[in-house]
Every structure is written in C-alpha cells, then in structure tokens.
Amino acid sequence: MANQPDRDDTKQRSIFVTAAIGGLLVIVIVLAAALVFSNRDGAPTSDPTGGGDPATSGSPASTAPAVPEGFVTLPAPATSENGYPIGYPHNDEGAAAFVAAYEVSQVALLDYDKAESWAPLYIAPTAEMSYSDVAENLVTLQRKNLGVELNGPAPAGPSAAAELEGIKWEAVATDVYLVSVSMSVELTKGDGSTSEVPVATGAVVYWEGDRWWIDLTGSRLPDLEELEAPQYAKPGTAAYTQAGWQVVKNSDWKGSLL
User: Fold this and answer.
1) Residue ranges of the domains in the chain?
2) Which residues lie across from 90 on neighbouring strands?
3) CA quadruple 255, 68, 99, 146: dihedral sign
C-alpha cells in the first residue's frame, strides 16, 4: 500500500476511538455507532453481557472438554493465513476464539501492508470503507501512540503485544455473538520506555459463508448504541468474577500471533 503524505492528519471519518491511560493511547477499531467498544484503566462501566453464563444459540453444540467453573478452553484455529489464525469452529467457543484472535493480533500491527492483508481475515467487507482505509487508520494511530515515524516500513524497536486475560460472550441472535475480551497490553515506545496497559474491549461477530466475521457496521446488533464498555478487572480478584470474566485455560494466547 502506497504511503500517504498526510498521515499526520487523522481522517474525518476515522474508524477509531482512542483513550488516554497514563499519557498513553490505545486503539480500538470502531465505526459509526461505536461497534467495537472498549474500556481502559478499569473505570467502572456497565457489563454489556450481564456477567452471566454464556448463552447458547442455534449453533452446533460445543465439543470442548469440561473445565472448572470460571474457566474456558478456546478451540484452536483450523489454519492460518499470513501468520494469523483463522478457521475457528461454528460454535460458541469458536466465536469467542475468533474475536480473541482479532483483538490480540490487531494490537501489534505497525506495518501498513501487513494490516491491509490482516483486515479481510477478520472484518466483514463494508460499503463504508475499504480494507486500505482500515489499515491506514489503524497503523497511523498505532504509530502515533508509540511515538514513531508515520511513514515507511514498520519500526524495528517499538512494539505492542497483548496477553489475553479473560473472555465472556453472549448470543444475541442465531449465529451472532457479542464477545468481550480482557487483555494486558505491553507497549514499547519509540524512546525505549515500556508500560503495561489494562484493556477491556469487545466486538460483534457473526457466522456467514462457513466462517466468522467481525461486524463493523452494527447491522447485526441494532441496539448497539445502548451498550456500554465492558469493565476491566484484574484476574483473581472479586471484581473479575463479578464482571463475569472467564479465565482462558489455554496457555498460548499471548503475543502478536496466536
């Protein structure tokens, strides 16, 4: 993707929301009605999933083995493309795993071309924007957050990597889920300084054409504007349990790739 000369000027139709935490910014993709919602720094908000047990839909039943209460085992992807995991099964846990892969992988994107090839692996195509627009906005703001040059190849030193700390989901319609993800994001800025940022975020995901898609338009969840961001809580605390988070039993959900 060709470099743009005006990356210092964020587009008017920006598809991002930024939130300041300790002087740092973290990005979450959104469009129009704030479809992908987020909460950072643990400020109290309403829990959009109600904190209850995962709801079931018309999807095939999960075949995952039983795990202790408060824990969940997410399925492995069937394959990967360009190094990113895809091909999650058509069940509750598959929907959750797909969103987790989407959220964890987007954090590390600092290369424009790589982001443009990443976007169609997870995000449903829309008339409102191209995948080039998604990549342009995401990487520009990620680079700004890390204090690095906006143009050119991805910088060698600065980085961002997410570790999944919790997940929860709700079936809002047949084959449509609202999935919330809790992560710890490790940032290495252009000046070499590092920090860890707690993040609670989420997305609407739906099954179509034998695969999962992230819905950026809000068409699958008409009442989206009434939702508030999920609440971040540190694993092992009472607040974590009360918020309905589940610990991901798998130990490999860390880093820019899964």
Assistant:
1) 16-51+73-248
2) none
3) negative
Phi then psi for residue 103, to 5 deg, are -70, -45
- Say what the pTM is: 0.76
Return the CATH class of domain 16-51+73-248.
alpha beta
The amino acid at 78: A
Distances (CA, A) of 186 to 43, 74, 84, 146, 159: 19, 23, 19, 11, 8
d(CA 83, CA 86): 9
C-alpha dist (Å) from residue 54 to 41, 57, 170, 251, 253: 25, 10, 6, 21, 20
Smallest Cα–Cα separation from 145: which of 12, 10, 11, 4?
10
* Residues sharing a CB contact under 8 Å with residue 53, sequence separation 6 or more, in sequence order: none
pLDDT at 86 > cutoff 90: yes
DSSP 224: G
Do residues 138 and 27 touch, judged by C-beta distance below 8 A? yes
- The pLDDT tens digits for 9-36 are 433 333 333 332 322 333 344 332 233 4
- How many residues belong to the chain? 258
Provide the token pair at 162.
């997410």
Mean pLDDT of the chain: 76
The residue-averaged pLDDT of 220-242 equals 84
